[in-house]
Each structure stands twice: as structure tokens, then as C-alpha cells.
């Protein structure tokens, strides 16, 4: 049970006093009072109300408060009766849930639906109460046990029986009972029981299991019970005298079938098990198994709304908020990666573009240089030509001047000669 | 879900019913108790007190055993908490006891933060439980409850009043844990001094609004003894694991030259009262108070902090599913928003950068154009110069040609003249 360490086992010398803890727990539980919800399901006329009355030795259903089965119903309904009973200082708030109309129609497909809905709605109420911010003492109205009445046909389970139990065995503790057991002989009953248990196993129906304990005595009793499943019961509202003792029973011309006689039926076993020894366990299993099942399905549906449900089961060990927190972290990581990728692409593109620009610029520069060179060359060439021309011109002009001078000289001489000649 | 008509009648009023005989459900408390015994019990005590005040000794004495004790020094820089868990058994009852001791409490020069590690420890245990409770798949009935059920606050036996550290610490803790103040080393106070001391302490607690644990009075079986005990608070205790022979018995006691202080002697100290109240009578109540009062308060505050409410803005009750769904919606919207923001930012940057680059391109283009123009200009001027040169060249050539021609002509004329002269000269 305890799996944690590190702890050490200590043997105490002398009186400490916590052996009194169980008494403290006892006191407090009596003060708090107890609650129990019992559901009875079965066709009309199987003696459900009578059995309840016999179990609790009271007239839960009487002429004043007739059981729902006495009314004519067209559809399956779910009805609750709450009573407060006291015994030995212990207060018990008992709720009996009846399902009149069950299995009575011609077409009974889906007649289990109102039952399922009822159980689920009680789970939902409890879940909401448990999940409130301001919580108060939560009343436990969940269905702790379902007595399923099987008609004593003597052959086997009906398809309706199988269908119902298959749909409800994971929502509530099912205790199948053979009703009106006084219509079968012990051998027929034995046969019937074997057949039923075989079919239950075949269809993998999980009926309520009595837990194994370490206590030898208890184990013996539990094994006895297990051998006699499903319990065959008889109920009665009337008290008859048998051998001077008043007993509850059914009077027949051939004798009295006694309710509390272990050789006549299993009623005593049922009562002892249901009320005297396993009532608390039924509540615990409802709380720890069936309710938790409901709750985890409900919360998983909310958390994984639309998300692929193939995610590994490990995620169910978190609360929905922790789940969201993790999703947020994942998302941040995803975004970071995306951001990095986008950044990379961005950088790359920019680099490309810049490179192109640089290349263009270099090209431009180069062409400019080339043109400049070209022009300079042309310029130089021109300069050269010009100089050449000037030189040529200069020399020719000089030549011309000399010639002119010569001509002038010659002409002067001629003039002189001419003048001379004349004389 | 399609369902047939479900006529849900309002719950009929609960009616009391008499029974015709012994049904047997009066065994229910026994069934419950048997289960608890099978599962075992769990109790966690926190001891706060200065170093050397006797916390470990008291625990040893209370539980009649020798827990592993570490002697601590006075030089711890910070208050720390040390928790140890033990499995104890008395008759058929198994108890998993966790003792948490403060280490270094009251030793620092600046004690302003002394209470914080304690508060943090208590809150951590609450948080741990809350997390388990909120899980989708949880196992509460198997959960090892580490929440602190009782806090023994050790008061120094100064005889005068509470220290301010005591008041500050207890005030911070009174809404988180059941505080049971005890006067430690009570064998150093005389009876009259003790009486005055107790009154002073209680009045200081009241005037400072510190709510210590009151033994419950709602159960008739223990109301009387609890009322009496409430009047003896705080308990003055002495702890000792050593045994001294008194009369013909060996008793737990402390031996002084002037006498023997017997731990379990109610005249000498309130040890027995403490053990009675803490363990024998009210242990279960301490656990219950921790769960239904202190833990619920923590849970409520935490959930409100996280934004949970019981009713929506229109004051209609909100179910858990609705709250979770709303939160999930909010959450998804926020994720989407963040994603969009990031994309937006990127788009922005891209646009900016594109703008920059385009600008640079345009610059380059204009430079290119400019250079082209420059070149064109230069080329034009060069062309002009060339033409000029060509003109000069051609005009010079013409001049030269003309001059040549003239010369040639004059030569010819001169030649004729000369010829003529020559010819005439012959005459």
C-alpha cells in the first residue's frame, strides 16, 4: 500500500496513544452520518419493491407511498426516494432509485439510456461540486450499487440483461440477482446460476467483485459468496409464524418459503454483504473507480477537444491546465524554430540581393573606368594630332615667311635692278 | 445523446422511516474504520522553534522513540526545513509520521525572512495535493498526504512575553496550518511565573489577532475534556528520553541536583495534556481541519489566481467544463495571436528591407545615368574638339594647297618672265 521511502520502521516502547485514531475516526463518521444510493433495475413484477422492503425491514413502499411500479408507465423513468433511517446511533440517508417501465415495452432497445443518463448526471453533479472554487460539504448522490433483477426463467440471460449489464458495468457496481427464487428448485437454481455466470464471463461483464482480504475468516466467507453468485432472492412484506417464531415469508399451501432462511434462498447473504459488510466498499469502489473513470473521460474530452486522441496516455497524468502549459511551451518552441527558419530565409535573400547590387555596382564602376580610359586615350590622340598639326603649321608658316621674305628681297632687288637698267 | 423521455422529478423531501428490526447498517462506522486501519494512517507535524529549544527531544518523548536527530549549529545562513518520515505501529494501528523541523530558526541577525521558508514548505505540500487533485487521471486514495496537519510552535521560556519573531511568524501561519503553541523547557519556570506567562501569551495572541488551534467542542463525547484543555493553553512541556528511577519505577525525567522533573507528572508539566490532546483525542480533527479549512483556503486562492470563477459575469453558475473550455479557447486565441504577431513582424521587416534595397537600386541606377551623361558630355566635347581639329587641319591644308598653287603659278610666271628676259636678253 505504501510505496514511498525513505522511512524507517519504529517499534514503540511505551504508550503513545495513536492507537486511539480508529476511535476518533469512528466518532467523526457517526457524527457526520452516512449516505447510500441503491438502484434497482428489472422488469415489472419481479418483486423489486418487496425486496427493498425486506432488506431494510421497513415499508419504503407502502400504500401511502406506493412504489413507482404500481403506476402505469409508458416510458422508462428514473425515480428517487430518499429516506432517513437510524440504527444504533448511526444515521443513514438512503436513496432508492427505481426504474419503472424498464424492459416492459414491446421494443426495449435503448431502455437502458435513462438509467445511464441518471448515473451520469449524478456523476456530473458531483464533478461540478468538486470542481467549484468555493466548495462546501458535498453530498454524495452518486449511485453506489445497482441490483439487477433477472427473471427466473431457468434457462439463461435474456439479450436485454446482457445488453444492460454490458453498458453499465463500467459505470456502477452491478449485483445481479435472481428474482422470485422460490419458483425454482435448488437444482434448477444451481443450474440457472451456472448458466448465468458462464454467460457473464463470456460477455466479459464485470459485476461487483468482493475484495480479497488478508483476514482468513473473511476470505472464507467471501469464497462462499462467490460460489453462490448470482444470489437468488425472495422478498416478502408479510410476517408469518413458523414454529412459534415470526418470520418474513411467503405462505403457500405446501409450506412457507422463508426469506431469511439460508436454505430457502440467498437473501441473508445479500443483506449481510450489501449492508453489513460491503456497503462502505461499494461506496469506495464507486468513488475510486467508476467516478474517476467518468471524470477522466470528461476532462480528457475537454482538454483534447479536437486534438488527435492518439496521443500517448502519459498525458492523462496531468491536469488540463498543466496540459495547456505544456502545449504553450511546445508552441513557443515551435514558434522559435519557425522564427529562426524565417530569419534564415530572410538573411539569405537579403544577402543575395545585396550581392547582386554589389555586382551591378562593380560592373558599373568597371565600365566607367573603361570609358574613362577610352576617352582619355582619344583625348591624348587628339592632343597628339593637334600638336602635330600645330607643328606642321608652325614650320610651314615659318617656311612661308622665309619664302615671302625671299620674294620680297627678290622683288626689291628686281626693283633695284630695274631702276638701274633704266639709267 | 439521444435519450428517451427522462422525467426527472425534484428530489422528494427526505422522510424519516422507522425500522422493524435490526437491518445492520450500524456497522457502517466499523466498516469505515476497518478500511482505514487496513490503509494505515498518516500524520505530519511541523516543529518551529529556535535551535536548541528542545524540538527533537519533545518529538522523541511524545512518540516514545528515537528519531534520527541532527544537532544543528547556530550559524545557518538561512532557515531550512528538514523532513523525515517514519512508519510507526501501536497495537494494530499503523501510522506514517512525518516530522518536519526548522533548522536555524531565530539564529540569523536579520530575522525578517525567517518565516518565509516555513510558509513556502506548507504551500508546496498544498500545491502538490492540488496538482494531484486536478490531474485528469488521478489516484487520490493512494496519495501520500504530505500536508502539514499540526504545527507545534515552541516558545522560549523567558517568563515575560512573546518575542516579536514569534508573533510575526504565527500571524503568517495561522491561516495555513493548525498552530499549537507550546512553552518549551518548562522546567525553568516556576508555577506562579508560568501562570502569569500563559495569560500574557494568550492575551498577546488575541490582541494580535493570531488564530491558534482550538480543540473542537462540537462532539459531545470529547467537548468537556477539550474545553478544559483549551483553558490550559499554551501547554508548558518538558521533554526527556532519559529514565530516572523514582520510587520503584523508571520514569522519563530530568535529574537536577534539587530534584527530578518527571515528564509524565501532570504537576510538573503539561506533557501528558499535550500528548492526550494532540494524539489521543484530536489527531483526526487536526487532519480534518487541515483538509477542509486550510487546504480549501489555499485551493480557493490558487484557483482564483488562475482565473477560475464559479459564476460567469452574468452571475450564472459556470460548470468546470465550461471554465476549462473557455480557458482553452482563450489559450488557443492567444497562441494564434502570437503566431500572427510574429508573422506580421516578419512581413514588416521584409517590406522595410525591400524598400531599402529598392532605394539602393534606384541610387545605383541614377548614378549609372549620371555617369552615362557625363560620358556623353565628354564624348561630345571630344567630338567637338576633333571637329575643330579637322576644321583647322582642312583649312591649313587648303591654305597650304593654295599657297602652293600660288607659288607654282608664280614660279611658272617667273619662269616665263625669266624665259622672256632670257630671251629678250639675247637680243
Automatic annotation (TrEMBL), chain A:
Top-level taxonomic group: Eukaryota
One GO cellular component, as annotated: kinetochore
GO biological process: cell division
Segments passing through the bilayer: none
Main location: nucleus
CDD domains linked to this entry: CDC_Septin
Subcellular location: Chromosome, Centromere, Kinetochore; Cleavage furrow; Cytoplasm, Cytoskeleton, Cilium axoneme; Cytoplasm, Cytoskeleton, Spindle
Region called Disordered, residue ranges: 360-398
Location of the Septin-type G domain: 32-301
PROSITE patterns: G_SEPTIN
Biased composition (Basic and acidic residues): 360-395
A GO term for molecular function: GTP binding
Keywords in alphabetical order: Cell cycle, Cell division, Cell projection, Centromere, Chromosome, Cilium, Coiled coil, Cytoplasm, Cytoskeleton, GTP-binding, Kinetochore, Mitosis, Nucleotide-binding
KW Ribonucleoprotein (keyword) present: no
InterPro entries: G_SEPTIN_dom (IPR030379), P-loop_NTPase (IPR027417), Septin (IPR016491), Septin7 (IPR008115)
Family according to the record: Belongs to the TRAFAC class TrmE-Era-EngA-EngB-Septin-like GTPase superfamily. Septin GTPase family.
PANTHER family: SEPTIN
Protein name, UniProt field: Septin
Organism: Pleuronectes platessa (European plaice)
Automatic annotation (TrEMBL), chain B:
InterPro entries associated with the record: G_SEPTIN_dom (IPR030379), P-loop_NTPase (IPR027417), Septin (IPR016491)
Molecular functions per Gene Ontology: GTP binding
Keywords attached to this entry: Coiled coil, GTP-binding, Nucleotide-binding
Top-level taxon: Eukaryota
Pfam families according to UniProt: Septin (PF00735)
Keyword field contains GTP-binding: yes
Domain Septin-type G: 39-305
Basic and acidic residues: compositionally biased ranges: 377-391, 415-427
Residues in coiled coil: 343-377
Residue span of region Disordered: 377-427
Family of this protein: Belongs to the TRAFAC class TrmE-Era-EngA-EngB-Septin-like GTPase superfamily. Septin GTPase family.
Name of the protein this chain belongs to: Septin
Amino acid at each position: 500500500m505504501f510505496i514511498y521511502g525513505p522511512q524507517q520502521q519504529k517499534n514503540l516502547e511505551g504508550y503513545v496513544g495513536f492507537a486511539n485514531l480508529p476511535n476518533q475516526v469512528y466518532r467523526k463518521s457517526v457524527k457526520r452520518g452516512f449516505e447510500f444510493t441503491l438502484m434497482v433495475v428489472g422488469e415489472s413484477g419481479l418483486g423489486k419493491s418487496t425486496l427493498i422492503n425486506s432488506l431494510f425491514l421497513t415499508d419504503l413502499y407502502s400504500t401511502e407511498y406506493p412504489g413507482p411500479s404500481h403506476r402505469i408507465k409508458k416510458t422508462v423513468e428514473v425515480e428517487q426516494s430518499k429516506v432517513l433511517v437510524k440504527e444504533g446511533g448511526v444515521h443513514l440517508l438512503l436513496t432508492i432509485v427505481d426504474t419503472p417501465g424498464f424492459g416492459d415495452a414491446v421494443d426495449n432497445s435503448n431502455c437502458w439510456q435513462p438509467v445511464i443518463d441518471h448515473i451520469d448526471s449524478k456523476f456530473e453533479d458531483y464533478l461540478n461540486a468538486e470542481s467549484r472554487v468555493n466548495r462546501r460539504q458535498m453530498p454524495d448522490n452518486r449511485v453506489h450499487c445497482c441490483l439487477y433483477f433477472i427473471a427466473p426463467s431457468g434457462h439463461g440471460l435474456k439479450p436485454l440483461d446482457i445488453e444492460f449489464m454490458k453498458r453499465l458495468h463500467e459505470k456502477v457496481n452491478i449485483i445481479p440477482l435472481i428474482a422470485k427464487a422460490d419458483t425454482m428448485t435448488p437444482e434448477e437454481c444451481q443450474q440457472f446460476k451456472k448458466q448465468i455466470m458462464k454467460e457473464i464471463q463470456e460477455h466479459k461483464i464485470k459485476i461487483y467483485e468482493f475484495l480479497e482480504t488478508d483476514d482468513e475468516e473473511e476470505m472464507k466467507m467471501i469464497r462462499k459468496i462467490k460460489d453462490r453468485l448470482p444470489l437468488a432472492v425472495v422478498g416478502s412484506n408479510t410476517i408469518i409464524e413458523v414454529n412459534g417464531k415470526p418470520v418474513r415469508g411467503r405462505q403457500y399451501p405446501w409450506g412457507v418459503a422463508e426469506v431469511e432462511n439460508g436454505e430457502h434462498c440467498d437473501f441473508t447473504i445479500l443483506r449481510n454483504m450489501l449492508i453489513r459488510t460491503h456497503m462502505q466498499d461499494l461506496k469506495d469502489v464507486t468513488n475510486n473507480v467508476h467516478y474517476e473513470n467518468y471524470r477522466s473521460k470528461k476532462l480528457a474530452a475537454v482538454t483534447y477537444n479536437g486534438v488527435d486522441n492518439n496521443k500517448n496516455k502519459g498525458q492523462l497524468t496531468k491536469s488540463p491546465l498543466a496540459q495547456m502549459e505544456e502545449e504553450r511551451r511546445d508552441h513557443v518552441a515551435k514558434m522559435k524554430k519557425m522564427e529562426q527558419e524565417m530569419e534564415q530565409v530572410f538573411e539569405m535573400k537579403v544577402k543575395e540581393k545585396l550581392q547582386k547590387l554589389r555586382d551591378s555596382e562593380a560592373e558599373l564602376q568597371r565600365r566607367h573606368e573603361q570609358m574613362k580610359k577610352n576617352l582619355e586615350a582619344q583625348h591624348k590622340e587628339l592632343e597628339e594630332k593637334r600638336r602635330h598639326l600645330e607643328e606642321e603649321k608652325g614650320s610651314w608658316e615659318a617656311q612661308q615667311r622665309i619664302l615671302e621674305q625671299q620674294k620680297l628681297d627678290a622683288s626689291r632687288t628686281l626693283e633695284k635692278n630695274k631702276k638701274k637698267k633704266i639709267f | 445523446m439521444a435519450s428517451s423521455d427522462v422525467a426527472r422529478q425534484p428530489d422528494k423531501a427526505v422522510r424519516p422511516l422507522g425500522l422493524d428490526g435490526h437491518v445492520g447498517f450500524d456497522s457502517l462506522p466499523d466498516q469505515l474504520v476497518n478500511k482505514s486501519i487496513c490503509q494505515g494512517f498518516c500524520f505530519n507535524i511541523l516543529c518551529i522553534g529556535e535551535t536548541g529549544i528542545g524540538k527533537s527531544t519533545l518529538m522523541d518523548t511524545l512518540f516514545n522513540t528515537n528519531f534520527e536527530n541532527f544537532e544543528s549549529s547556530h550559524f545557518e545562513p538561512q532557515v531550512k526545513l528538514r523532513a523525515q518520515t517514519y512508519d510507526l505501529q501501536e497495537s494494530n494501528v499503523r501510522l506514517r509520521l512525518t516530522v518536519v523541523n526548522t533548522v536555524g530558526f531565530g539564529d540569523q541577525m536579520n530575522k525578517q525572512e525567517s518565516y518565509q521558508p516555513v510558509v513556502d514548505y506548507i504551500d508546496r505540500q498544498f500545491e502538490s495535493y492540488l496538482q494531484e487533485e486536478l490531474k485528469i487521471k488521478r489516484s487520490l486514495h493512494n496519495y501520500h498526504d504530505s500536508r502539514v496537519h499540526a504545527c507545534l510552535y515552541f516558545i522560549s521560556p523567558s517568563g515575560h512575553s512573546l518575542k516579536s519573531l514569534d508573533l510575526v511568524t504565527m500571524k503568517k501561519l495561522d491561516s495555513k496550518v493548525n498552530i499549537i503553541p507550546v512553552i518549551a523547557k518548562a522546567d525553568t519556570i516556576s508555577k506562579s511565573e508560568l501562570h502569569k506567562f500563559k495569560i500574557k501569551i494568550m492575551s498577546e495572541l488575541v490582541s494580535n489577532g493570531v488564530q491558534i488551534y482550538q480543540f473542537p467542542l462540537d462532539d459531545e463525547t470529547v467537548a468537556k475534556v477539550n474545553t478544559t484543555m483549551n483553558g490550559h493553553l499554551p501547554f508548558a512541556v518538558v521533554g526527556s528520553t532519559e529514565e530516572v528511577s523514582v520510587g520503584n519505577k523508571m520514569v522519563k525525567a530530568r535529574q537536577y541536583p534539587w530534584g527530578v522533573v518527571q515528564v509524565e507528572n501532570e504537576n510538573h508539566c503539561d506533557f501528558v495534556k499535550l500528548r492526550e490532546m494532540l494524539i489521543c483525542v484530536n489527531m483526526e480533527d487536526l487532519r480534518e481541519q487541515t483538509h477542509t479549512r486550510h487546504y480549501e483556503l489555499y485551493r480557493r486562492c490558487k484557483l482564483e489566481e488562475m482565473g477560475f470563477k464559479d459564476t460567469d459575469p452574468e452571475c450564472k453558475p459556470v460548470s468546470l467544463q465550461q471554465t476549462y473550455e473557455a480557458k482553452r479557447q482563450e489559450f488557443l486565441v492567444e497562441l494564434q495571436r502570437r503566431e500572427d504577431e510574429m508573422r506580421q513582424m516578419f512581413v514588416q521587416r521584409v517590406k522595410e528591407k525591400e524598400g531599402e534595397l529598392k532605394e539602393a537600386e534606384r541610387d545605383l541606377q541614377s548614378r549609372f545615368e549620371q555617369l552615362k551623361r557625363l560620358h556623353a558630355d565628354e564624348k561630345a566635347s571630344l567630338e567637338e574638339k576633333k571637329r575643330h581639329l579637322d576644321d583647322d587641319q582642312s583649312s591649313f591644308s587648303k591654305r597650304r594647297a593654295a599657297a602652293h598653287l600660288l607659288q607654282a603659278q608664280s614660279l611658272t610666271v617667273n619662269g616665263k618672265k625669266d624665259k622672256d628676259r632670257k630671251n629678250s636678253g639675247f637680243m
